[in-house]
Amino acid sequence: xxxxxxxxxxxxxxxxxxxxxxxxxxxxxxxxxxxxxxxxxxxxxxxxxxxxxxxxxxxxxxxxxxxxxxxxxxxxxxxxxxxxxxxxxxxxxxxxxxxxxxxxxxxxxxxxxxxxxxxxxxxxxxxxxxxxxxxxxxxxxxxxxxxxxxxxxxxxxxxxxxxxxxxxxxxxxxxxxxxxxxxxxxxxxxxxxxxxxxxxxxxxxxxxxxxxxxxxxxxxxxxxxxxxxxxxxxxxxxxxxxxxxxxxxxxxxxxxxxxxxxxxxxxxxxxxxxxxxxxxxxxxxxxxxxxxxxxxxxxxxxxxxxxxxxxxxxxxxxxxxxxxxxxxxxxxxxxxxxxxxxxxxxxxxxxxxxxxxxxxxxxxxxxxxxxxxxxxxxxxxxxxxxxxxxxxxxxxxxxxxxxxxxxxxxxxxxxxxxxxxxxxxxxxxxxxxxxxxxxxxxxxxxxxxxxxxxxxxxxxxxxxxxxxxxxxxxxxxxxxx
Length: 481
Known about the structure:
Elements: E1 3-8, H1 13-28, E2 36-42, H2 48-59, H3 70-77, E3 80-84, H4 90-101, E4 107-112, H5 119-128, E5 136-140, H6 148-161, E6 167-169, H7 177-187, E7 201-209, H8 218-243, H9 252-265, H10 271-277, E8 278-284, E9 286-288, E10 291-293, E11 311-317, E12 327-333, E13 340-347, E14 363-369, E15 373-381, E16 390-398, H11 399-402, H12 410-420, H13 429-448, E17 454-457, H14 464-471
Parallel strand pairs: 1-2, 1-4, 2-3, 4-5, 5-6, 7-12, 8-17
Antiparallel strand pairs: 7-13, 8-11, 9-10, 11-12, 13-14, 14-15, 15-16
Helix pairs in contact: 1-12, 5-6, 6-13, 8-9, 8-13, 9-13
């Protein structure tokens, strides 16, 4: 299948840090369809050869195991092209269309790896140039908007130019192998689905923890914050996949219909709920991996006295028959004790324990990063106790060992899906808007009052109030048990 893949923002960090390495891995694995061209567009004046040299230099910064040899890069570089474009000039879009029309590829994927405020003008210009026919797909990188109103405006413009099935709203967490295995775990195994409900599950915890701070991106992060950066998209997408009802098929819209129902069932926020069920924090100076690190307010480009949150913990519920009364805890933060993304499903203990230690409960841990796998914690009798005392044992599945061939990374999979036209792992506009609708009361409350901002030491697991949030229900975060 001949394809043309165009990156708007072709010299930006996202393109050379994530997208080009992912495409190279697809090329190395033999998964990139033959007959493809990859075009980067940006405002700089460069030739194809200069752009190829730019990418080869940047590849020296990726993990050594994923770095191409000179011979491999030469083969990959033959696919790379560059075109200068001013994104506000209609004539440049007409020139792009002429370049694409030269050979008439079966599929054209336009990846908007730019700032979201440029999405509307790019889409409008694409439509005016006729770059929106049925063979064209447009990929929209997050964040899609800053709030509900801006997200709706972006979607309005996108829908005025492209049909919904042409729009691929990307959330790279959905491309992670462990996240995809959530579907297989739930709907491909008879073992778990009968237990996947309030009668058997006590609580569910979703943690997206980062050990790094904001680095040199303080100005960008201060306009965004942890709620917009991680909760509104990544965490809520994970929650929908954990809580959704079984779809009628593996069709993209069947899956996304069920995810939307979860978002609509989330307990809405009132002022009382926000003060009680939401914790926001900001890291101060501390120690990470034995090294002293500055606090958020001392980071480069962070405004003095900023009240931007670098940590959020939320308690919520899915108000339907399956999940009524089961708390879902969402947590994300920068400069935490470890880089750790996982979902912990805490089952209820047996109703009448007859062994010592039998009041503890089973636990399923879905590991997203840095490891990729599943851990099921069970209770078993100690060998020297004649079956009278139980201890926790783990059934640990490492996907990298279970599937020894090199596995497909998140962006690699999503790029291949966009080329193939598979929408299953992309977010529909109504999902995205409903997620914004749910978090907006929190954003509004914070805009009016910054007095509830907690602080936490870099290298910790966040403010003590986050532990109290879970302890109030009689539970604890996984690392505190």
